[in-house]
Each structure stands twice: as C-alpha cells, then as structure tokens.
Amino acid sequence: MRGTLYIVSTPIGNLEDITLRALRVLKEVDLIAAEDTRHSAKLLTHYGISKPLMSYWGERERAKSEVVLSRLLAGQSVALISDAGTPGISDPGRVVIERAIGEDIPVVPVPGPSALVAALSISGLDTTEFSFIGFLPGKKGQRLKRLRDLSVEPRTLVFYESPHRIAETIGELHEVFGDRKAALVKEITKLHEEVLRGGLGEITVMLCTRVIAGEYVIIIEGRKREGVSFEEALEEVRMLMQKGRGRKEAVRIVSGEYGISRKDLYQQSLP
C-alpha cells in the first residue's frame, strides 16, 4: 500500500495563520519534507510537533525527491511544506509533486495562507480576474521584455519581488505600464506589514521614504480596454502572434475587443 503526499500550506508570517487540519496532518505524518528545516523548526516547535524532518531546498530538491518517493512507495505518509505559503507556488515542491503523481501516489492539498490571495484581498483593485506572474526574470533585458509583453494584459497582475530589487522593479513598471493604479504590500501578516496604494509614480515616490526590507507583493490594474489607438491594437495583435496565435485569430480577437476594422488590422500586421 502506498503512502500519501500532503501539500501543506504554512503561515506566511503570523504563526497563528495555520489551519487545524494542517496541524493535525503535521502531527500524524511519518515524515515532514521542508524547504529549510531550520526555518520550519520554529513553526513545529511553536506547536509542539516532533517528527522526522528533512530538507529539499535548492539543489537538494531533485535528489531528495527520490528519498521522499521511496518513503511514499514504502507506505509512509509525507507532509511537504515550504518556508511560507504553499509548496510549488513560487516555492520549491514541484519536482516532488510531479514524481509522486507519476507513481500514482495520492497527492492531497491541505490549503491555507497564500501571499498573493491575501494581498489581492486588500489591494482595492479588481479581483474578478487576475494573472499571477510571480518573480520576474533577474536580467534587466529579459525583465523589460516580459513587462512589455504583459503591458497589454487586461487582467489585474500580481508579482512577487525581493527587497534588494523592489525599487528598481517599481521604476521599470512605471516606465512600461505608465501611471496605472497599483498596491504594494510589504511583509504581509508580519509585524511591519504595510500597504502603499496609488499610481505607480506615486508609489515610486513613497517608496523612497520607506525602509526597504522583507518580501513584497505588487498588484497592478490591467490594461484598460477603452480608448485604444489603432497602433496599440496592432501591437496587441503582434503580441498575440508572438505567443503562438495565428495572424487571423489574433486579428479576430483584437478586432472584436476594440471594434477596429479586421481588414485594416490584418493588412497592417503583415510583414
């Protein structure tokens, strides 16, 4: 009989933000696979949980996934946790989860805290539809290209960013997106939690007077549909084509969205 892999969400800051079910599972499993055992030990000690603990962080993830898999195949239950939030969501865990699924091992979610959902809930921006981007590329050229691709996205956008790059990223967002409405959430659920709301230009100025520390969630409103010029619509056709859409399909989508002549868009999009 095979064991079960539990994907357990843990607090993103405040240790009280953990479910009763998560605590029960952590107490009952045979092994806890943690992103960083030193970090997770604080949570486990706080709740009096004493279980075998192993790390799967960074380069260890692929090798340690084999250890986790062998325990699961032997019938043991394993809880997978990251330092904060949900494993696999901008955190390690994907390799272990994929291997378990490949072996037909039951994978059970134990949901809980999520920085992106928590930040969205207090952003004041439209949450009907949103696109989670996570961390942007490290290299500036790749980062700017990614932002230009996202500049035509109509849904609310959610990014994660580290403290050492937050000022630069906000500046680049302002440069590419213009002065769109945004919310910058710092150290969510922690002692120094703070939310900056306003246009990206305003947030850029506010950030200059703040202490840069901790993790950040950036939420930005999507591209407004009204008042789009022909050139902007044509650029969106090109963006869709770069993402794999055929020319006719891209023209049809953009033409229908903005009420612009399909024939004109098609002709102008030709090389």
Average residue-wise pLDDT: 92
Q: What number of domains?
A: 3
Number of strands: 10
The CATH topology of the largest domain corresponds to Cobalt-precorrin-4 Transmethylase, domain 1
Helical run tally: 11
**How many whole angstroms does the radius of gyration measure?**
22 Å
Q: What class, by secondary structure content?
A: alpha/beta
Q: Sum up the overall morphology in one term.
A: globular
- Helix coverage percent: 40-55%
Strand count, sense and barrel status of the largest sheet are: 5 strands, parallel
- The topology string of helices and strands comes to EHEHEHEHEHEHEHEEHEHHH
CATH class of the largest domain: Alpha Beta
Taking the alpha carbons of the first and last residues, their distance comes to 60 Å
CATH superfamily of the largest domain: Tetrapyrrole methylase, N-terminal domain
The low-confidence runs, each spanning 5 or more residues with pLDDT under 50, are none
Protein model, in words:
It is built from 11 helices and 10 strands. The protein is of the alpha/beta class. It has 3 domains: 5-113, Tetrapyrrole methylase, N-terminal domain (Cobalt-precorrin-4 Transmethylase, domain 1, 3-Layer(aba) Sandwich); 116-220, Methyltransferase, Cobalt-precorrin-4 Transmethylase, Domain 2, CATH 3.30.950; 230-269, no CATH class. A 5-stranded parallel beta sheet has the order 3-2-4-1-5, with helices on both faces. A 5-stranded mixed beta sheet has the order 6-7-10-8-9, sandwiched between helices. Strand 8 (181-186) and strand 9 (194-199) form a beta hairpin. Helix 7 packs antiparallel against helix 8 (200-207) and helix 9 (230-242) packs antiparallel against helix 10 (247-258). The radius of gyration is 22 Å and the shape is globular. The model has no long low-confidence stretch (mean pLDDT 92).
